[in-house]
Write a structure and sequence with these properties.
Elements (H helix, E strand, L loop, with lengths): L5 E5 L10 E9 L6 E4 L2 E2 L5 E3 L4 E3 L3 E2 L2 E4 L9 E4 L4 E7 L13 H10 L4 H15 L14 E7 L4 E7 L2 E6 L3 E4 L11 E2 L3 H7 L12 H5 L5 H19 L6 H8 L32 E10 L9 E6 L8 E3 L21 H13 L5 H34 L3 H34 L3
Antiparallel strand pairs: 1-2, 1-14, 2-16, 3-8, 4-7, 5-6, 8-9, 9-10, 10-11, 11-12, 12-13, 13-15, 16-17, 17-18
Helix pairs in contact: 1-2, 7-9, 8-9
Amino acid sequence: MLFSCDTMVALPNTTKSRQTLFAKNSDRPREECQPLVYRGRQSHHGGEVTRCQFMELPQVATTYQHIGSRPYWCWGYEHGFNEYQVVIGNEGLISKTPESEEPKLVGMEIVRLGLERSRTAAESVEVMTSLITKYGQGRFKNDAGVRTYDNGYLVADPREAYVIETAGHEWVVKRVESVVGISNVHSVGTDWNRLSHLAEHRAIEQGWWQPESGQFDFAEAYCDFPSLAYARGAQRRARSCALLNRYKGKIDPLTMMALLRDHSDGETPGEAFREEMPTTYSICMHYNKEREGNTAASLVADLCADGSRLPIYWCSFYSPCLGVFLPMFSKGRIPPILEIGDAQPSEESPWWLFRRLELKVRQNQFNSQDITTIRAVWARFQAELLDTAYRIAADAQWLIDAGQDAGASQVLTEYMNRNVDRMLTTLRDMLARTAKSQQGI
């Protein structure tokens, strides 16, 4: 069973720019393609329904424009962001709640529903918890081969952030005060701000909580603590929290990118960032004979509360330690090529090309010097992107403020297309040079 995602947030009181920063690594089966998809704002008529994987829900009047990182088979997302700067990521959790015979919402579907139906983090929490209460989520039997599990979520906007953790139809919410990292382990105990109506009652009914035990501890009551996934998730969560606290006041996008590329096993949470390829579990996950999972996609969201620029969403495919974070914008249109990808390898899919690069590194078709060169090439490109993205984000905001939305969208669309074209040229050149070296050319 695969549980190995990590999500983090740093609120304005902890970041260098005084803006909220959000980060997520989505770890999935190593060949489960995860393209980046765009969904425009839509209006809906009364009586329409939303068709999820296993359930139908009443549709709302308006679904907001958003971009999501979507396992190719799934209606929902591992993480994503919308036109109102709401950003959400999820984590797989293991609770004591038994597997259901009835279908529920898949955890990733709740991410998408939160993005489609909310304009603030608080509104998204309300949408998500209401859906969880009514329809449930977590483990349930199905004939489609879909792996289901309980979920944890980190929800943020430019001003605030919340952790939601679940067990079946029950949930708990904690408001973030400064920095936090979440992983594949329930982490909200007695320090919650909101609790589902029946959470304590059901825990007592199942013998998981004693009424005389004081303030209700959601994690203690519902988390399957002895599991191996818990232990590994706890280590990675300790690692992300330690580094976020270590860099408080100095956290910037590069800090978050370094966290997502980190290869520490977490046994020494406060150690310096580790770049060498790991042999065990780490925040930047690489599969081996014992585990099938690999980091499939990553996001660093640099939000903006003061209107001085547009928010920038830095997106990476497959292993972030062997790639580059591209700046994406909710204004304009992301390059359609980023949406290409399904179950079969494709030379047209950026995701599959980055998968092939990681595979060549794994098969020792690159030596250590080659890996250093690859990272250096991407680092130079990243530095240029960090320079140009913030300037164009400010310029586009100026155009929007001047009533030139169409002009801003065109500028951003062209900018994103140029960056993706350059990324693909660089990536294909890396792969071609490897093929030539193997042939002795």
